[in-house]
Amino acid sequence: MSPGVVVDHLVVSRRAHPILHGVSLRVAPGELVGLLGPSGSGKSTLMRTLVGVQAFQSGRVLVDDLPVGSPALRDRIGYVAQSPASYRDLTVEENVRYFAAMLGVEARDASRVIDVVDLNAHRHDLVSSLSGGEINRVSLAVALLGAPRLLVLDEPTVGLDPVLRERLWTVFGHLRDQGLAVVVSSHVMDEAARCDRLVLLREGRVIFEGGPDLLLTTTNSSTYDNAFVALVRSAP
């Protein structure tokens, strides 16, 4: 089995301003890890580091035993940023086929990923006519082209209504069950229960790592929002 993701003592600074302070975590294949925390906690910086587009000052970041940024990892990591990766004046299928060509992936793979994200009914619709959740699923389809082993999703449900969030999380769970290592960031604490394991960040530091149930019991809380507040108050 692939070794997944290893992050050891990661330090990231920008313009002499520290963003991440010695962050460490692991993500195994077939595991869905929730990266949670308020805006400005360092979630997006950590995720950019995982996909190899963020420079860092010290520490170690490996995917499948290879340093991030290695050419061999280009087709092993799928990334969905907060901004949609699609062209509004093209149809769903045209978008996915375009990115498949850019990546050198067989055109038939476009049909596979459109099916995975449940957009067959909108295959010939312009992206401009889709809902927010459907547009996010187009970006997800693009990220799934080829055969990624790690899927990194930066706040993919932000601004969506509960029904669309539910649909996306169902897709994330299916991908996890297929053996992908999935990292999903969010500042919506009630999404914590959908994850196998949680990593909570505050001001660039990990203040909790463990399962959702452990988070509640550790803080003696009945809700994830209350648990996070309790952790923040108790953090040094």
Distance between the termini: 38 Å
- Describe the strand arrangement of the main beta sheet, using strand numbers: 6-7-8-3-9-10
What is the N-to-C succession of helices and strands? Answer: EEEHEEEHHHEHEEEHH
Q: What fold name goes in the CATH topology slot of the largest domain?
A: Rossmann fold
Give me the Rg, rounded.
18 Å
Estimated share of beta-strand residues: 25-35%
* Low-confidence regions: none
CATH superfamily of the largest domain, please?
P-loop containing nucleotide triphosphate hydrolases
CATH class division of the largest domain: Alpha Beta
Can you count the beta strands? 10
Q: Under the CATH scheme, which architecture of the largest domain would be assigned?
A: 3-Layer(aba) Sandwich
Main sheet characteristics: 6 strands, mixed
Overall structural class, as computed from helix and strand content, comes to: alpha/beta
Would you tell me the overall average pLDDT?
91
C-alpha geometry: globular
Fraction of helical residues: 25-40%
Number of domains: 2
Total of DSSP H or I helical runs spanning 4+ residues: 7
What does this protein look like?
This protein has 2 domains: 1-76 and 150-236, P-loop containing nucleotide triphosphate hydrolases (Rossmann fold); 83-147, no CATH class. The chain has helices spanning 43-50, 92-103, 108-116, 132-143, 162-177, 212-219, 224-234; strands at residues 5-14, 17-27, 32-36, 58-63, 66-67, 77-80, 150-154, 181-186, 197-202, 205-210. The radius of gyration is 18 Å and the shape is globular. A hairpin with a 2-residue loop joins strand 9 and strand 10. The strands form 2 sheets. It has a 6-stranded mixed sheet with strand order 6-7-8-3-9-10, sandwiched between helices. The model has no long low-confidence stretch (mean pLDDT 91). Helices cover 32% and strands 26% of the residues. Helix 4 packs parallel to helix 5 (162-177). It has 236 residues and is an alpha/beta fold. The chain starts with a strand and ends with a helix.
